[in-house]
């Protein structure tokens, strides 16, 4: 899922790759395939659920500011109807 | 932010504050990157190992390469520049230069994927906290170069086409003036001589324009040979003696002792001297003209043409060697001197193409002037070998 990748990438630019990766793993919706930040597989089949859990994980540590960053990424990926 | 206030904050709040600051920094960095990325000039930067650290959108577009593929690579693998003579220019030659003149290039050729580009290059060294980078800007001047070439071609073709009918006009006018078409009265002869002078001036202008176009297009071949100055000057002075005698001017030659032979194209050298002498005679009414040659160093000879004529003011000197750089552009002067305003510009181009320099000095208006240029001196067999091989 491209949107999940983009959120993790964007977060990595702000908090660094290590932290962005750790928070993404803790959300329980992704699995990293290599050391590259964008080489990941989304394990949660439900798109909305995956995004909600991922954002929640970042919000837990960094607050509302991190949610806004994620929302800006989401705006660039309009959902297909 | 107050330090006491910060101490009261929960770790989560501190993390959020730091996060917000990082978002701000990221936005600023992105804005700067976008500005550099979208400017119309090709911009790239290298570190002190000449590896690419920045590659903007214009660079991607012209070279058809993605920045992600070239970042970290050696700039010589990606940016291939050469001179108009095909000589490669490496990135080491123009980056990190203390001397600003070495850090810029004009009219270099950049190898592209489908086409090559003419570019002007400018560089600036950026000192970072513990390293330095060089920012290189390449301005695409291909269109300007093409326009220049079209203009030169146009001038060249037009001049060629004008020369033939003008030569015919001049020849028939001359025949009429000589009475070949029957007797002419004084008034008719007067009209004819004015027409001949006009045709001659126009023909000179066409010839100069044509020569200029050839020089600028690099179409003039130079046949370099060893020349003995004394013999060469005597030959030319014989022709000019008649003109100086007519005006009551002296004409002197002084080739200093120990002045070596020179290495030059005989015809071009002749053209240069004739231009200097012609100007001196035109603008000298009293006194005369002397030609001198002196040895500057083991491989350079300076030739000077000094007159006691009109002289030149200090502020006029810089434009003397420019195109149409005639000092007095009044119709009267043009009619009296018959010059085209291209002679010294052509002379300068010829001197420089033979590897010399050109200049003039004058103490001011009415105080005469000295026009000079340098040529390669041939001091020894070894020098000749080097020149021929070069």
TrEMBL record, chain A:
It comes from the Bacteria. This is Uncharacterized protein. The lineage of its organism: Bacteria, Katanobacteria.
TrEMBL record, chain B:
Residues 28-74 form the PAS domain. It comes from the Bacteria. Its EC number is 2.7.13.3. One of its GO terms (molecular function) is phosphorelay sensor kinase activity. It catalyses: ATP + protein L-histidine = ADP + protein N-phospho-L-histidine. Residues 157-379 form the Histidine kinase domain. PANTHER family: OSMOSENSING HISTIDINE PROTEIN KINASE SLN1, TWO-COMPONENT HISTIDINE PROTEIN KINASE. This is histidine kinase. It comes from candidate division WWE3 bacterium GW2011_GWA1_41_8.
């Amino acid at each position: 899922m491209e949107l999940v990748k983009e959120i993790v990438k964007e977060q990595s630019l702000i908090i660094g790759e290590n932290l962005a990766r750790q928070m993404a793993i803790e959300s329980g919706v992704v699995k990293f395939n290599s050391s590259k930040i964008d080489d990941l597989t989304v394990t949660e089949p439900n798109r909305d659920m995956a995004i909600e859990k991922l954002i929640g994980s970042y919000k837990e540590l960094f607050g509302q500011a991190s949610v806004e960053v994620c929302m800006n990424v989401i705006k660039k990926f309009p959902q297909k109807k | 932010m107050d330090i006491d206030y910060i101490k009261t904050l929960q770790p989560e709040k501190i993390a959020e504050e730091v996060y917000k600051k990082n978002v701000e920094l990221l936005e600023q960095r992105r804005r700067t990157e976008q500005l550099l990325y979208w400017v119309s000039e090709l911009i790239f930067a290298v570190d002190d190992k000449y590896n690419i650290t920045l590659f903007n959108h214009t660079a991607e577009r012209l070279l058809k390469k993605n920045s992600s593929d070239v970042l970290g690579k050696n700039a010589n693998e990606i940016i291939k520049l050469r001179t108009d003579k095909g000589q490669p220019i490496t990135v080491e030659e123009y980056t990190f230069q203390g001397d600003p003149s070495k850090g810029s290039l004009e009219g270099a050729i950049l190898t592209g994927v489908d086409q090559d580009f003419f570019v002007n290059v400018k560089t600036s060294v950026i000192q970072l906290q513990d390293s330095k980078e060089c920012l290189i800007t390449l301005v695409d001047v291909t269109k300007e170069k093409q326009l220049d070439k079209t203009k030169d071609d146009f001038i060249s073709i037009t001049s060629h086409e004008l020369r033939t009918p003008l030569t015919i006009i001049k020849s028939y006018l001359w025949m009429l003036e000589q009475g070949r078409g029957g007797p002419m009265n004084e008034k008719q002869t007067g009209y004819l001589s004015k027409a001949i002078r006009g045709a001659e001036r126009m023909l000179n202008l066409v010839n100069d324009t044509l020569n200029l176009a050839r020089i600028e297009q690099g179409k003039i071949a130079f046949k370099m040979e060893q020349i003995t100055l004394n013999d060469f000057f005597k030959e030319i002075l014989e022709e000019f003696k008649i003109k100086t005698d007519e005006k009551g001017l002296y004409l002197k030659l002084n080739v200093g002792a120990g002045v070596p032979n020179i290495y030059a194209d005989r015809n071009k050298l002749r053209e240069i001297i004739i231009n200097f002498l012609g100007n001196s005679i035109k603008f000298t009414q009293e006194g005369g003209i002397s030609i001198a040659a002196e040895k500057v160093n083991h491989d350079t000879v300076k030739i000077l043409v000094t007159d006691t004529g009109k002289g030149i003011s200090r502020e006029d000197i810089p434009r003397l060697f420019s195109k149409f750089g005639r000092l007095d552009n009044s119709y009267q002067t043009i009619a009296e001197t018959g010059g085209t305003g291209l002679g010294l510009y052509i002379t300068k181009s010829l001197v420089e193409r033979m590897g010399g320099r050109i200049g003039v000095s004058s103490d001011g208006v009415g105080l005469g002037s000295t026009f000079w240029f340098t040529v390669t001196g041939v001091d020894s067999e070894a020098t000749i070998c080097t020149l021929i091989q070069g």
